Model the fold of this input.
Amino acid sequence: MILPSEARAALIARQGAGARYDAETAPAETLAMARAGTAYFARLLNDLPDAALDAPSGRAGWLRRAVVAETGYHARRLGLFIGAVRAGAMPDPTLHVPARDIASGTTLPHRGLRHLNEHAAVHLNVEWRDMADADWELNVAGIALRDTPHLRARLLWQNALDLNAGGRVRDVPPGLL
Done:
């Protein structure tokens, strides 16, 4: 009988060094919530016509484009944070997106705003996939790398609702409610 770890090792050997996998000790449940939130947010965003990005969001005083900018820049900050930790550098521990960055992001053209979101999410996912088992146990500036998928999932699902584009509370994973 092939054990799951043996099957995993065999799959990795067949697919080669270019394929990326989550470490065995990665927080699979919260990574799944974050990845599902990324797909959910992207679907809502992609269903909006460009002009609809200038409409109000569900967050008081925010346009939809501000919610999109916050979502994209948050992924970028997390990805850079994780990359710096993995490289042995001391990263900026501020993971929330400053208002000035959100304001700047709202001035991006529609296509640029959508690409910011997509590319930053891909970069973050690559950082998670490249983390070794030991990386998941690191804690830098009071932030446990193991908690980053949960932080991302919370923001994504909240922003999906705040986008005011058809997101539903019943779609949010129970672990985030």
